[in-house]
Structures are given as structure tokens and as C-alpha cells.
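Subject: Sanity check before I submit

Could someone independently write out the C-alpha cells for this chain? I want to compare against mine line by line before I put it in a report. The sequence has 86 residues.
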Amino acid sequence: MEGTQSLPPAKRQLAQCLIEEALPIQTIADEVTCSRRTVFRYKRNLKDHGSCLAPSISRMGRPSVLTEAMIEVQLMCGLKSTSQSI
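---
Independent answer below. Compare away.
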């Protein structure tokens, strides 16, 4: 199977049932028509999270909007570094 398309919910459900029945990885991949890697990932996610899909993670990095508290901290840090350099 090419690409990174997510399997339809019905196929994920089938994969989950087959994984829970402890069928061989290749058999599950053939039945669901996905890669062995996908089956391994679903199996790990079932063990770790109780679902074929891992929970989504929040976006990391710089916030798009600064809150009042963030601005205050930046101002305080700027004042401290300025007073130390004098």
C-alpha cells in the first residue's frame, strides 16, 4: 500500500479485532490490505493507548499570540538584562 493515507474506520476496526485474536502480522496485513508496519503500529498503539490510533499531540513551538503574562515576563527579563549590563 503506497502513501500515508489513514485506513478507513471499518478497516481499523477489523485490524483491531484481528490483532486482539492474536493472528500473525502478515495475515492481518493481507486481510486489511495494509502494510505490516501499519499492523505493528496499530498493535503498539492498542497496547499503549487502547486504540489503533495514537492520541494527537498539541502543536509545539512558539505561540502565535502572546498572553499578558508572557509579555510581562519578557519585559521583566529585558529589564533585568539591561540593568546587569550597565
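---
OP: Matches mine. For the report I'm noting this point. Helices lie at 9-20, 25-32, 36-49, 68-85.
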